[in-house]
């Protein structure tokens, strides 16, 4: 079987679940199958936008990110459901478990897609056989459809998985690049968003082929370091490795929210920050990390977006501290205009064992008051092991009763770290 | 204006007044040094409007002629160029003369510079300080008091008052206190004063550091005059003015613990070296934290652990450990700063708990105290 694999170079799969949330709902309740189904945020408010929808709904012209009212107009019989993240998370874990059967080099990208490096997996068959087996297994075990791209690198695999949906398997070789990728519009290329697309069009680059031949210096001037990288990709080159750890090396923890209407009242905006601080804080606690830098995002009514951040003297995790910093940054940088979206991001994350707080002469009493509590916790840990006691906020997400999501339009990757046998590996019971 | 001066004396004075000159000033003429030649000698002035320094070079000293005044007068010369020029002139004597209007000629040996000067009349006047209330301190004591406190001032502008050193004069005692809210340094000394006087002012830390650099190490008395918004230090041939910081210095006396739960006596040098070594692995930017634990037999364990780098454990035999067992973490940098500021071969460290400030003092010396806030580990 080895002869089916390249002598040099790699074989990489990109597995992309088809309309994942909707498919999970259909697997959960088969009576939904064959019906137009959409998963949307809060249906009562403006942010009630379509997060994902079934292929049946798509045939009516319903699209992701479309506002609910518009979707309903296109398809009055559309079934709308709120997201059940718990279900999606479980399904996602099942999917990644299957991927792990074929290679240890699995890199989760998000809840519903991941890369698998199968270069050394020849014992399971040829690359296409493996892709077919994975697709079949996911469909039979989880009742979920997916598309798989087979290619020599991540970029091509990603492009390939996008080509046949649902339940497609596409092989994209380097030699296919000129006749398959090059005629495509640049916006269809993974890594080219609306803004980059606009800039490329401005340079008279409309197709991937034109990008592949574009002048590197011009690209660099227009797009920075990303320019030459895009050109490489357009030529079918991508040296990034499939890195199983990339998801666990989370670099930041952030939450943002689109406001139900544009707001310019400072008090109201600060209340939003208060809520965001609470969310960021509880996520930091769940991940058992602290932030050394804190940033805020402000998107104004005119969509102009600014981010401002600050390095802190002491790492933080508590919501009051996060709120205090966010408030300071906001008051300093807000220009008073109406705001559409606010966000808080903690970066430069450290594990608490490494995090310290330099106490302050004028406020140490506050910390000192808690000293007996910390001592007791320490004692308990010494006697019964590290996991015997923790702050309530450190409770794993899975054990919490239905976390209130839904106000967030995006989903975070936190759950990827609570996979059994991965993550949490630093915790060891101290039974001395 | 025209005079001939010994170059080394001129260089010294220029260097002193340069301490007050900055290139970042909103008043352009303050980028210059004012030079005034009179019958008595030559006076140089530099100022950044916060600090002003005046250095006087007498016509003669101990029977030696230092300056030969040919014509009195005044000029302001660009400090940056003037200071570099005088440093590099070829011979031991320098002639400076203002010729037609503000053109200044500097001659030394076969070297001749023409500098465009500025009108000395434009130079701001130094603050007028009434010299009624004067107290005196020996120069070396003043320098020690500055050195032992000024390092602890805050470098952050979030609480501007903490960028200064609090000077209190009461009952013939001068107390200097500095804190950046994470550590505090305090030094007391008896001074010569009219017992009735009392002051409570805040002097910018930067002013004191600059003053300390200029003063020679001797025990000549320095006159100190404090007014509402200025302080003046008068040494021989030197006037040093500094603006005072406005605002109330926080009352730190109630924050300094008077009792303790654990007292440790150690050899200063051994302890400092142990902390220094332990801090090698404590990561910069992560607060440089080391941990101190008391263990049996009067042994102190100093340790530090940075998972990515490695760990270090070392033991220091104390002279005595009294009171409760203790584990405490603190910034190695703060500890080393404090230890270097202390005199005496043995020190007492008094702890009141792992989350409370602790105090370091030389054994049997009540005139100086260093306080450090620990770090809380999670």
From TrEMBL, chain A:
Any one annotated GO CC term: cytosol
Segment forming the signal sequence: none
Record-linked Gene3D superfamilies: 3.30.70.270, 3.40.1170.60, 5' to 3' exonuclease, C-terminal subdomain, DNA polymerase, Y-family, little finger domain
Top-level taxon: Bacteria
CDD domains reported in the protein's UniProt record: PolY_Pol_IV_kappa (cd03586)
Cell compartments where the protein resides: Cytoplasm
Catalytic residues as annotated in Swiss-Prot or TrEMBL: 113
HAMAP family reported in the protein's UniProt record: DNApol_IV
Protein name in UniProt: DNA polymerase IV
TrEMBL record, chain B:
Source organism superkingdom: Bacteria
Its job: Confers DNA tethering and processivity to DNA polymerases and other proteins. Acts as a clamp, forming a ring around DNA (a reaction catalyzed by the clamp-loading complex) which diffuses in an ATP-independent manner freely and bidirectionally along dsDNA. Initially characterized for its ability to contact the catalytic subunit of DNA polymerase III (Pol III), a complex, multichain enzyme responsible for most of the replicative synthesis in bacteria; Pol III exhibits 3'-5' exonuclease proofreading activity.
Record flagged with keyword Nucleotidyltransferase: yes
Organism: Cytobacillus firmus
Domain called DNA polymerase III beta sliding clamp central: residue spans: 137-251
GO molecular function: 3'-5' exonuclease activity; DNA binding; DNA-directed DNA polymerase activity
Matches recorded under CDD domains: beta_clamp
Domain DNA polymerase III beta sliding clamp N-terminal: 1-127
GO CC annotation terms, alphabetical: cytoplasm; DNA polymerase III complex
Domain DNA polymerase III beta sliding clamp C-terminal: start-end pairs: 254-376
UniProt record similarity statement: Belongs to the beta sliding clamp family.
SUPFAM superfamilies: DNA clamp
Gene Ontology biological-process annotations: DNA strand elongation involved in DNA replication
Record keywords, A-Z: Cytoplasm, DNA replication, DNA-binding, DNA-directed DNA polymerase, Nucleotidyltransferase, Transferase
PANTHER family named among the record's database cross-references: BETA SLIDING CLAMP, DNA POLYMERASE III SUBUNIT BETA
Pfam families, alphabetized: DNA_pol3_beta, DNA_pol3_beta_2, DNA_pol3_beta_3
Protein name (Swiss-Prot/TrEMBL): Beta sliding clamp
Assembly, per entry: Forms a ring-shaped head-to-tail homodimer around DNA.
Subcellular location: Cytoplasm
